[in-house]
Amino acid sequence: MELLLAIAIMALGAVVLGAALGYASIKFKVEGNPLVEKIEGILPQTQCGQCGYPGCKPYAEAIAKGEADINLCPPGGMEGVQKLADLLGREVKPLDAEEKPKSVAIIDENTCIGCTLCIQACPVDAIVGAAKQMHTIIAPLCTGCELCLPPCPVECIRMEPIGENIDNWKWKYPVVEIKAAPLQKAA
Amino acid sequence: MMSLFKFKGGVKPPTHKNESTGLPIARAPLPSRLVVPLHQSIGGMPRPVVAAGDKVLKGQLIGEADGWISAAVHAPTSGTVLEVAMHAQPHPSGLDALSVVIEPDGRDEWIAREAVDYKSLKPEEVRERLQQAGVVGLGGAVFPTHGKLTASKTVAMEELVINGAECEPFITCDDLLMRERAEEVVRGIGIFRDLLQPQKVLIGIEDNKPEAAAAMRAAVDALNEPFLVVQVPTRYPAGGAKQLIRVLTGKEVPASKRSTDLGVQCFNVATAYTAWRAIAHGEPVVSRLVTVSGDVRTPRNYEVLIGTPMDELLKLAQPHPDTDGIIMGGPMMGFLVPDPQAPVVKATNCLIAHCERLFPPKAPEMPCIRCGACAEACPHELQPFELYWFARAKNFGKTQEYNIFDCIECGCCSFVCPSRIPLVQYFRFAKSEIWAREREKNAAEGAKARFEFKQLRDEREKAEKAEKLAKAAAAQAAKKAAEAAAVAAAEGDAPATAVAEPEAPPVVVDAEKAAKMATIQAAMERAKAQREATQPKNTEALTTEQQRAVDEIEARRTVLETTPRAEAAPLSEKAE
């Protein structure tokens, strides 16, 4: 009798806890992969496709699945690789491309024929213009992805590195000046 | 006598104030040329409203305020605008910024000045006038003053604190201003009082300036104002806004809050003076008092036009031959100006001729021994040694946890550090890195949002197009089917219909196909017609010049279209 009671209690416990777990799994279901979001937060959102994926999110998904390496994002630079390595516990690898200075696209407005091809290519809506009208780039919105360069039929778009100005100037890391000590003559 | 409070920390560096207080304020002569930077205050960069070649009068607007938190910029003297171009700035970076260069004509002729009685104006009109006159905080932060003169609706204004402490060594411009022009300072404080309606007005002056305090007391009594002139103990940085508020009111402004949340507002004495000149005399801010001291023969205070090159100003005080640089600001918070030709701006309160005799080079930096002297000296009760470790390790998240943004960069920690660590430099480095990251993060978020919106738009357009096509095709098919059925019904009699019925499906299929073909054909025709019908509207009524330009572009385009890409390729490679 006692044996049966014990089994019944255990069974009851199992049913109750199982039901609670099942409920929780539906109620507190995590939408999407939180890791993808974290990875995407590190990526620079230039949407340039230099990693071989159509945008930052697909690349983040590929990294999360373990399909892609973490060193494919040139705009993110070595700092991005470092951060991804820290997040994912992978090894830091050298960047799979050259690191370029952050640039902005400039349309030579005298040459532009108003074909709208660059507007369609721009992933972040940073180009304004209309058919047969001159186009121009809204510089603060440009991510420097270079996707507008290939479609231009008259090659009127060029990339210009963003220089240092008073607004984006940064205090430098304090460096200790090392001076050679004056030579002392042996007495 | 009211009881005073204390702030924690602080240091007592040698004050070096007596050197420059011996002589009265002198007016600096007109320089050979004036370089007036457009961006001299916190907030939006003023837009230039003059061009090269324009004649300007003293006090004429040359830079228009951009947005509410921004202040106008004016011509400091009459003359000719030589250029609006990039020039060296009094900034630690030594980088250039947009400036208006004016060649004085020597007449120093004022524009028509309108003096008004501010009591007849509405508060918003007074604020507007202050913005138009370019009145900004002259204590060093150069925050547009009108932005601080709106009384909070939720917190009652209890104290208005007027800062005449001037705690930094060498600087005496506020001291001399209060000694010589106390009446106008007090009148200016009257404007602030009337706009903010505080319960009390407290004027804080360090007790090493008894003459200034006496002059201010006399002016307050003469004008019959209920302002309290309070002498506060001399201790650096008693002139920091939060420190002075603490000393005078006992209120401690918490991290990430403003003094206005506690019902306190703070202004510098020089700001009050310029506000009075702007309102009661219609004079915009075109000059300021600058202490010239340090390694010079005759240290004194000058009234200097904004835009005067620093080296020209320094020459007036006859620097000693061993002078090897100019410090703008005091020795605690100032910086060595990278280009001595940089102009005096609204934030320039002091120029110190630098030499190794006065400022001997520091012995080399030693490791931090965690003695805690910096934490004891910090007037904001931060832990500089912790901040130092994290800033040094570039662990910026941690520096924010230790409230790096409460650091006012007063330099007390570096001053007391027995290991001579340039702590403030580390904090400035960490702060600007954090700001840069913040900017990048915001830019990335904006880019992501726009990218996602563009994708959504593309998807929606595709879906809409597909839906439209499907609908049109279905409608056509239905029509054709109905017609076919009607024809069939008309041709045959009752039994024939019965026979025709099994035949119907193939007819329908054929009809569907035909309908589709017809729709496509029709659509193509329509598109063609439309293409022919639409002419770009802006090509009508062209001038011959425009027509020629259009022809040229068309010619170029045909050439480009006919040129095979293979030929064009080497050209582009060469260009790269």
Average of the residue pLDDT scores of chain A: 88
What composes the largest sheet of chain B?
6 strands, mixed
Spatial sequence of strands, sheet with the most strands of chain B? 1-14-13-17-15-16
CATH architecture of the domain at 135-283 in chain B: 3-Layer(aba) Sandwich
CATH superfamily of the domain at 135-283 in chain B: NADH-ubiquinone oxidoreductase 51kDa subunit
Helix content estimate of chain B? 40-55%
Q: Summarize the biggest pleated sheet of chain A.
A: 2 strands, antiparallel
Low-confidence stretches of chain A: none
User: Which word captures the global form of chain A?
Assistant: flat
Assign an overall shape of chain B: elongated
Strand proportion of chain B, as a percent range, falls in 5-15%
Element pattern of chain A in H and E: HHHHEHEEE
* CATH fold-level assignment of the domain at 103-161 in chain A: Alpha-Beta Plaits
Oligomer: heterodimer
In spatial order, strands of the major sheet of chain A run: 1-4
Q: Total helix count of chain B?
A: 14
Give start-end ranges of low-pLDDT stretches of chain B: 496-504, 566-576
For the secondary structure, the number of strands of chain A is 4
Helix coverage percent of chain A: 25-40%
Describe this structure in words.
The complex is a heterodimer of chains A (187) and B (576). With 187 residues, chain A is mainly alpha-helical. In chain A, 33% of the residues lie in helices and 7% in strands. In chain A, the strands form two sheets. Chain A has a two-stranded antiparallel ribbon. Chain A has a two-stranded antiparallel ribbon with strand order 2-3. In chain A, strand 2 (127-128) and strand 3 form a beta hairpin. In chain A, helix 2 (34-42) packs across helix 3. The model of chain A has no long low-confidence stretch (mean pLDDT 88). With 576 residues, chain B is of the alpha/beta class. Chain B has a domain at 135-283: NADH-ubiquinone oxidoreductase 51kDa subunit (Rossmann fold), CATH 3.40.50. Chain B has helices at residues 123-132, 173-196, 210-222, 241-249, 269-280, 310-316, 373-377, 384-392, 396-401, 412-416, 423-491, 494-533, 544-562, 565-575; strands spanning 26-27, 34-37, 47-48, 55-56, 61-64, 73-74, 79-88, 96-104, 159-163, 200-206, 228-232, 264-268, 287-294, 300-305, 325-328, 335-336, 350-354. In chain B, helix 3 links the parallel strand 10 and strand 11 (228-232). The relative contact order of chain B is 0.10.
